[in-house]
UniProtKB/TrEMBL annotation:
Subcellular location, principal: membrane
Transmembrane segments: 397-416
EC number in record: 2.7.11.1
SMART domains, per the entry: B_lectin, S_TKc
A GO cellular component annotation in the UniProt record: plasma membrane
Bilayer topology term: Single-pass type I membrane protein
Record localization: Cell membrane
Keyword Membrane part of the UniProt annotation: yes
Name of the protein in question: Receptor-like serine/threonine-protein kinase
Species of the source: Prunus yedoensis var. nudiflora
Length: 797
């Protein structure tokens, strides 16, 4: 019997061991990984942290949801505006995972291997950190015994018990605003059109805002208690309003902790209250238009009066959409979201949904004539949703107006022909192929890669010149959600830049501002130049749009924004090690070499600066903003202008003083960029104890005295090479020499970087390096240009 007893003891030990292993952990420590099919579960089994995807957002996100929620609707999303790539891919080093990195920071990674730092606003100072999901739904990052970062500081669309909404650190430079922001749709977690929180101006009000500026007050602090304009169905919710010199916020807790309650700001601007009763979730909708709202409120925010002549109601009929003026693309959204896209655009007459083989939804939006549409009623098996009345009685009007329509159609053809000739004179091609061909060409460009051997890489001036799609204004409006503030990326001299969406591809939309100093000349210049230039280190222009006074350019989207958002940011500059900076410098040099030598015409950029260098998902540099570029034809080496435009700190002395520009002018700008990348400091507003006017003079003094290492960015001490550092500084100083003829060509520069052991010429002292700061005042001949394509940094959530 003893052997059996021994076996039983061993069996129990192993059983307990495997039970412990199978129990989900609530924490992630340094060096541990959480892969896409694994989760963390809070100690009490209330909340679960893991990766998720949806039919509408297949790329995947990291989120938190209630463990007992069978739908696993996230209450918090870490990367709501930065979806992961190839989420369904295999696991491994190139898979999707969450980890505590070597430096103690919590990061998400996918096959791009570009870390997404969750605790971006509070970086760890050591690797003694651990991440824990609590029963409150709060994900915290502990450094030792101190809380370094927590997800409750960055709410998404859900208001949980214990979470605070309001203003914090009010008397410091680190003011933090905590708002709820709705999802883009019921299944897409990207930022939507609504926000909820305390009014920053009148701190006693609790409002819901819409991206167009409309708002609705839903609660207030009367000096004694906080009151909502609707009554919560839960009797045991205690709301607390805190107001002091440092913070103002609203929070709530629940007396009965066994029955959780929470609030969600929906994608259509309504407020839903959820309660979990056992394994079931109950929901109560609070529409801002219900009778429960106080009479003193500002009225209904969601149901605004229709701005469309056909109204906002749709009637369904059996039939098919005409082939003309139909914009269709397989966006993975619900049919309800397709209706929203059509309803929000008055040019959209009808829409239809069709199922795809991969389970997606084909959303078709019709922008043509309603009469043409009604001719096809009953001729197809699809369900078509028509704005207004879709009855066949409307078709009787066609008999009366057939001659008028024929006449209008004839006039329209003449107008389109004249418009095509005008567009063709501007160098804008592709319009004659129709909207569908333009969309197909745009998708082809989005799907192509940056490989130099790609068949889409076409030399300027050949017979196969790159065609530029001409897109409708309604498409631009739809793709940017009517130029919503939530989609705005930045503002430059040309005008605002918005993020747009086409299929699963992101695009950048640059819209000419009416108040912009840039005008039709710069617009035409950029269209004619950059549309025909194809190089992996030049930003790709995908299309354009001219609609009345609107002038719009569509570019490939650069997820890492502009280089200056890294180099000059005290925190993000740490993410660029020396190898990456060398890679960026060499990429800029290759792009300039193509412009100066290998394109058919010699192109001078004239506004090369660090903010006009964009970074793609793999940190590859791309030169952008060709609005001020000029062409030197034939054997022409330089040209002169009476209109000196550009950005001070980057303009060569011969250009500033005499209006002379050449390839050497771009070389000077390149030299400034190199020194800024090496040092992490701006040339224009540089001040040092040696009284140098700018960064160039400071670099010259250090190089001359053999102290190059002192110019190096302090964050690169452990990652840079002294030899390559000295090479970069010497090349930069050669490029910024006073005499244009003494500067190297970009061919020379590329050769210098390729042959590190070769002997280089000795640079001469750069311009203005020993002058006082008063000297630059007479040089202002015109106001320098702003960044025509820059992007604002977005905080991670």
């Amino acid at each position: 019997m003893k052997p059996w007893r021994a076996f039983s003891v061993v069996f129990c030990i192993f059983s307990c061991f495997f039970v412990c292993l199978s129990h989900a952990s609530d924490s992630l420590r340094h060096g541990q990984y959480l892969y896409r099919n694994e989760t963390l579960v809070s100690a009490g089994g209330v909340f679960e942290l893991g990766f998720f995807s949806s039919h509408a957002a297949p790329n995947g996100y990291l989120g938190i949801w209630f463990k007992n929620d069978k739908n696993q609707k996230p209450v918090w999303v870490a990367n709501k505006d930065s979806p992961l790539m190839d989420f369904p891919g295999v696991l491994g080093s190139s898979g999707v995972f969450l980890t505590i990195r070597y430096d103690g920071n919590m990061v998400i990674s996918d096959r791009r291997n570009i870390p997404f730092i969750l605790n971006y606003g509070a970086l760890a100072s050591s690797n003694n950190t651990r991440a824990t999901i609590r029963d409150t739904g709060n994900l915290i990052l502990m450094e030792g015994k101190e809380i370094l970062w927590q997800s409750f500081y960055y709410p998404t669309d859900t208001f949980l018990p214990g979470m605070k909404l309001g203003l914090f650190n009010m008397n410091t430079e680190q003011l933090r605003k905590q708002f709820l922001v709705s999802w883009f749709s019921a299944s897409v977690p990207a930022d939507g059109s609504y926000a909820l929180g305390i009014d920053p101006v009148n701190n006693t009000q609790f409002n819901v805002w819409r991206s167009d500026g409309a708002y609705q007050q839903i609660g207030l602090w009367d000096g004694h208690e906080f009151k909502f304009f609707f009554q919560s169905t839960s009797d045991n919710l205690n709301f607390s309003f805190v107001w002091n010199s440092n913070e103002i916020y609203l929070t709530f807790n629940k007396q009965n902790t066994s029955m959780p309650s929470w609030f969600v700001l929906t994608s259509n601007g309504e407020i839903d209250e959820f309660r979990m009763v056992g394994q079931e979730i109950e929901v109560v909708d609070y529409s801002l238009c219900d009778d429960t709202m106080a009479r003193s409120s500002n009225g209904c925010l969601v149901a605004m009066p229709s701005a469309c002549s056909g109204g906002d109601n749709f009637s369904n009929t059996r039939g098919s959409l005409p082939s003309s003026m139909v914009l269709s693309w397989p966006i993975r959204i619900d049919p309800y979201d397709c209706e929203i896209l059509c309803r929000n655009n008055c040019s959209c007459v009808a829409y239809a949904n069709a199922s795809l083989q991969d389970g997606g939804t084909l959303c078709q939006l019709y922008y043509g004539n309603k009469s043409d549409l009604l001719k096809l009623v009953g001729t197809g098996n699809s369900t078509v949703y028509v704005r207004g009345n879709a009855s066949k009685s409307d078709r009787k009007l066609l008999v009366v107006t057939v001659m008028v329509i024929a006449l209008v159609f004839f006039i329209l053809i003449l107008l389109l022909h004249r418009l095509w000739r005008k567009l063709n004179s501007l160098g804008i091609y592709g319009f004659h192929n129709g909207m569908r061909d333009s969309m197909r060409l745009l998708l082809l460009q989005l799907s192509s890669d940056d490989n130099a051997s790609s068949p889409n890489v076409i030399e300027l001036g050949t017979k196969k010149d790159h065609e530029l799609p001409f897109l409708s204004f309604s498409f631009i409006v739809t793709s940017t959600n009517n130029f919503s503030l939530a989609n705005k990326l930045g503002q430059g001299g040309f005008g605002p830049v918005y993020k747009g969406k086409l299929q699963e591809h992101d695009i950048a939309v640059k819209r000419l501002s009416k108040n912009s100093r840039q005008g039709p000349l710069e617009f035409k210049n950029e269209v004619q130049l950059i549309s025909k230039l194809q190089h992996r280190n030049l930003v790709k222009l995908l299309g354009c749009c001219i609609h009345r006074e609107e002038k719009i350019l569509i570019y490939e989207y650069m997820p890492n924004k502009s280089l200056d958002s890294f180099i000059f940011d005290p925190t993000k500059r740490r993410l660029l090690n020396w190898t990456q900076r060398i890679h960026i410098i060499e990429g800029i040099a290759q792009g300039l070499l193509y412009l100066h030598k290998y394109s058919r015409l010699r192109i001078i950029h004239r506004d090369l600066k660090i903010s006009n260098i964009l970074l793609d998902a793999y940190m590859n540099p791309k030169i952008s903003d060709f609005g001020l570029a000029r062409i030197l034809s034939g054997n022409e080496c330089r040209a002169k202008t009476n209109r000196v435009v550009g950005t001070y700190g980057y303009m060569s002395p011969e250009y500033v003083m005499h209006g002379l520009f050449s390839t050497e002018s771009d070389v000077f700008s390149f030299g400034v960029i190199v020194l800024e990348i090496v040092s992490g400091r701006k040339n224009a507003n540089f001040h040092e104890s040696d009284h140098s006017l700018n960064l160039l003079g400071h670099a010259w003094n250090l190089w001359k005295s053999g102290r190059c290492v002192e110019l190096m960015d302090s964050t690169l001490v452990d990652s840079s090479s002294t030899d390559s550092l000295a090479l970069c500084i010497q090349v930069g100083l050669l490029c910024v020499q006073d005499c244009a003829e003494e500067r190297p060509t970009m061919s020379d520069v590329v050769s210098m970087f390729s042959n590190e052991g070769a002997a280089l010429p000795t640079p001469k002292q750069p311009t203005y390096s020993n002058l006082t700061t008063e000297v630059d005042k007479p040089l202002r001949r015109e106001v320098p240009s702003e960044n025509l394509l820059t992007f604002s940094a977005m905080e991670a959530r």
